[in-house]
From TrEMBL:
Coiled coil: none annotated. Keywords: Methyltransferase, Transferase. This is Methyltransferase family protein. The lineage of its organism: Bacteria, Bacillati, Actinomycetota, Actinomycetes, Micrococcales. It comes from Myceligenerans xiligouense. Residues 50-137 form the Methyltransferase type domain. Belongs to the methyltransferase superfamily. Signal peptide: none annotated.
Amino acid sequence: MTGRRRPLREIAVSFGEDAERYDRTRPGYPAALADVVLENRGGTGAPDVLDVGIGTGSAASLFRDAGCEVTGVEPDERMAALARRAGFPVESRPFDHRYPARQRYDVVVSGQAWHWVKQRAGAVTAAQVLRPGGRLAVFWNICLPEPPVAAALAEVYRGVDLGLDVLPWERSPLAGYEKLAGAAVAGIWGSRAFGTVRRHDIPWLVEFTRDAWVDQVPTLAWHERLSPRALSRVLDGNAKVIDALGGTVTMPYTTLTLLADRRPD
């Protein structure tokens, strides 16, 4: 497999090419995430939350259900349109190019998107839009199939060129997300605007039918570069894996969460 690099901005907005599918098929976030992010936050009243990379509004919906007032920023207008349809005000622009907002927020969150932001610049901007003592929370969902399931999925991709240096599912994706988390911690620390970064790993389970699993496969990173023929082969292979498991699969997930509170002025 070859490594064909693309600019981060280009990759970040590639998910909007099929925003409806992304909205329909991605599993969302565990209810416990809102509890972890909002715990011991301080303040009174409904927290004002800014969702960086709001996408179609999946994480935003979780925090709205927890009683927060949520505003979004999203570089992909196609994704932003769906979040607006779900009732969220959204500004269409990259976050790390964003001027400090006139409004200050209690919490800045970013789900499955912070790695598309320039790390130190994003942390500096987060500090600028947060009230003193406000909280930055960045998090990622990590699908961790059981080893036999992962091995069967990896076999589907053998010989399929996704432009990657590794075979999907051959290794645990956790290591890759550890690198993203490490870069996030370095950026937050480098901003000099936040206190200690705390990590929480939230385990949960998602059950997929064969059709639901196959439906979300094209939304996974790098699949958009496949030819129609190659994608059809990949989807058929994924379907056969789930069929061999009886038509459904329960996937273990971990939501890797980093929290840091803004220093007082």
